[in-house]
């Protein structure tokens, strides 16, 4: 290594230390509750190691680089301990199972737990198979279970082992996309007439894959397909104590670039449309805009009606079960507002290489939804192997507007990233906002009381009299949370928060509380109102 390379390495370490120090100083100035003493200790150690590295630069290159590496590690530790850790948020991960025994499931969930995740989105319906032995499939003459899992039930194992570790397991479903098997997979082998077809494929007598992806699709217009899908989803909800159903691939492929690649032009779909409108959609093109719009809107309505039916039937079985959607880029994303009443949580796939791109994508989805939905950030730094630092930055990217983060996918999780999550943004245990909104509200209120005691009062960001008045108001809200229910709780909350916000502003005008603390408190109150609205609209406790 040349002297220039050594100097560049030392400069990079110096930059990393400076970045961590800036974060720590900014959080100090913003009265954010983080373990400052521990962060400062790591950064002081980093400074010392960097100085030792500089002294060795001209005489011992190997020793210099060794000390520089240690300094970089200490700076990273200081950075992680400088990050805030929310007490109420969903921390989830998507995962395709590979385990062949309960013991292997336990070891996987130990790693999930070590990272601080409180939710696991387990791929339960993939490529036309269920991972569990399905009586619904068997009754319909379809292979009852994915061949990789025959002989044991991974869904049962993940749910039970997850419960013992405080990890809620959601059944992630690949919707109407049934994989890339050249035969069409188990469902289309048994029922080839259930295949969805593109405009270009409309005259085929057998299932054909989508161009580009190789995916085969089921024709959701067909009542037999709908019934089969509904039956096995209800089987999951009735048989296993899953926390939720996570919907993926729930709209037909659609593209403006290649209209003949659009779905669904199966014989059943065309005939159903023709019975209603009197003409065959296969006979038009996208250039016939009025007719094309009638056709595409009809397909959209079919998709929306099915998601609505699925939601209602799931909730009849288990009212507190969470139905979430992970809209794919394209039709699912642009039309996600249609599903606002038919899902509880939306997890936009904000799959980007940089954290700066995540928040705008999450914000766009949130604007499309009606009040009452929660939005989590769906990110993919693990899958893209972007490293621990980018993972942390993407987790933080939209925290001002999201209620949690779901990461794709745990199969690519490294030990370094797991450790970084647990030391940094997931250092504190958190209540899942989507699953337990009322408990999440309580956690947020208790966190304010903790910050008041350990940060705001000791640092004189609020005077004692104002602090006591704030704590008294928080206690009133906490008491209401424990004693009231339903509409009464909403009335009490709205009244108390309506009184609380102007009180805070007046205290700020009177210079009895720092403006930054007022901002923190107002944001917390807004989050509480959003969670309460969600709990009542979606009837989640």
Structural features, described:
α2 packs antiparallel against α3 (61-81) and α15 packs antiparallel against α18. Strands 1, 2, 3, 4, 5, 6, 7, 8, 9 and 10 form a ten-stranded mixed sheet that branches. The protein has 541 residues and is α/β, with parallel strands linked by helices. It has helices spanning 3-29, 36-56, 61-81, 102-115, 135-139, 154-164, 185-190, 223-239, 267-277, 289-317, 331-334, 358-368, 388-396, 415-423, 437-456, 464-483, 486-509, 515-537, and strands spanning 90-95, 119-126, 129-130, 168-173, 244-247, 322-325, 345-346, 374-375, 377-379, 404-408. Helices cover 52% and strands 8% of the residues.
Q: How many helices does DSSP assign?
A: 18
Q: List how many beta strands DSSP finds.
A: 10
Order of helices and strands, N to C?
A: HHHEHEEHHEHHEHHEHEHEEHEHHHHH
Helix content: 40-55%
Largest sheet: 10 strands, mixed
Structural class: alpha/beta
- Described by the principal axes of the CA atoms, the overall outline is globular
SSE topology:
Elements (H helix, E strand, L loop, with lengths): L2 H27 L6 H21 L4 H21 L8 E6 L6 H14 L3 E8 L2 E2 L4 H5 L14 H11 L3 E6 L11 H6 L32 H17 L4 E4 L19 H11 L11 H29 L4 E4 L5 H4 L10 E2 L11 H11 L5 E2 L1 E3 L8 H9 L7 E5 L6 H9 L13 H20 L7 H20 L2 H24 L5 H23 L4
Parallel strand pairs: 1-2, 1-10, 2-4, 4-5, 5-6, 6-7, 7-8, 9-10
Antiparallel strand pairs: 2-3
Helix pairs in contact: 1-2, 1-3, 2-3, 4-6, 4-14, 8-10, 13-14, 15-16, 15-18, 16-17, 17-18
Kindly list the characteristics that best describe this protein.
single chain; about 550 residues; alpha/beta; ten-stranded mixed beta sheet; 10 strands; globular
